[in-house]
What does this fold into?
Amino acid sequence: MTNKKKFPSGGKENGMDDVSYSAHISNGKSAINSKSKLSGVAKHNLRKYRSKEYDRDNIVLLLGSTNLLQDVKKVYRDTFSKALQQYNQKQTRADRRIEDYFEHVSDKNQDMAVEIIFQCGDKDFWDNIFIETDNEKENKENICKVYDTLLEQLQKEMPDFKVANAVVHFDEASPHMHVVGVPVGRGFKRGLETKVSKRSVFTPKTLENILQNHLRETASMQMLIHYGVFVKDKQKGKNHDLTVAEYKVQQETKRLEMVTENLDEKQDMLYDTSLRLEQTEKEVSEAERHLSGTKMEIAGAKKDLIQIKTESRETKQKLMAEQEEIKQENLLLKLDMLTLHSDKEHLLCDVQKAENEKEQILARKDGLLEDIDVLDKEFEKRLDFINVLDKLKALFYKLFSMIPVVKEFVRLVEEKRDIRVASPYGYTPLGRLLKEYRTPLPRYDRLVIFPEIASWQTSKGEVVPVYEDYNGRGTDYQLAGFWNVQTEQGIKVSEIRGEIAPENRICTLERAEVYMKAVESFMEELKPTESAKYNRPMYRTHNMEHERDR
It folds into this structure.
């Protein structure tokens, strides 16, 4: 960053005026609407030709490569490949599919890319900067920082303008930046859903708010940081969004004016003795120049009128051709619909035949299975009952393993103690039990009860302890009171302190051991009877089928 003490003598501290700012968009004759136009822009921007005035060493590439055409093609591939694939999948005719969207657009005579030229400061300002600061390398680096920041802000403000290439020129009247990108429009119903669309991106609002306001503010801030000057405010009523061709004409006009001024000075010195004659010649020359300019404007207007008429005829022809294509597509769609209706009728007939055959088969099957169903009902009931007993046994074994943990829980409750169930390795067994059987109280997420583990019969009815999940993680519980499971009302600890004792416990998991032994005894008594029945021939085959189904 340039130190303010090192500002040129004409800097803001010494009264330098604000510098100019411009943003020019390719349009009209300078529009990039073909590959040849894009190649021409590449030759100029990247100095792909020999010239005494232009030097390839005096350009700095900020974004992209030295192959502008390939940079634009890459943007097309990255941006439109998905939309192109979706479009081609919808086409029933091969001739309607698009193989290469870049080539497709280049043949349509539409804006396939857009160029923006940014310039901060005029020739006099930059001449003054380079004259009064002897470090040319540092000056160029600061200029590149200004334009690089402007480029980043452009990409943020206009995300649908996909920048392919950006380059800074130092070999013309004043440093400026060429930015070439692809405008992207979205949500189209005809053609690709996402396509190239200059109109969608470069709206009057975009030109006013972004190019002429937001980016002007960014440029002003950067020029202040690096050169101590502000950018001029936009002049009301003046259109600064010139075309690229107008910008280049403007630049060449400035250079021509500079050469003319130098020539006039030499002529003044040479013909100082004939001032009156020189003044007369200047007046004549001025009149001729105005006359020549008027003729050129008339010729240009005629040429533009001819071009507009030609474009109008071409547009009309294209619209008529597209209308004819739409008619052909509608005819093909109608034929396809007739074919689909015919196919649908055939399929309905086949389905009806299959349904009739299915009903006949089911009728024969029902007759064969009636006798079997009578025998199966009792057998299925017994098998289902055994399955339920197996599940109960497994559940009781699980509950039996929890009995020591349950005893620890009821002991802590009867001692009115808080519970901590965290360990260095996670939850303790009691912590896992409480996490599985906890029930939050309504409207109080951290107040929980455990009615399925244990309860006590007291003078206030059947109650369960109420604990507060102190830290919300299920590791620390503090006894807050008791809860009546019938009336669903809270009870203070002091009201039933002496009644929370082992002799008043009811409905605990400790009884799981008694239930499990009862189930085992019942299943042992059932096994001889069932095994004898399963060994009968009529049940043996059916039992195997049932096990396979399970």
Observations:
- The radius of gyration is 45 Å.
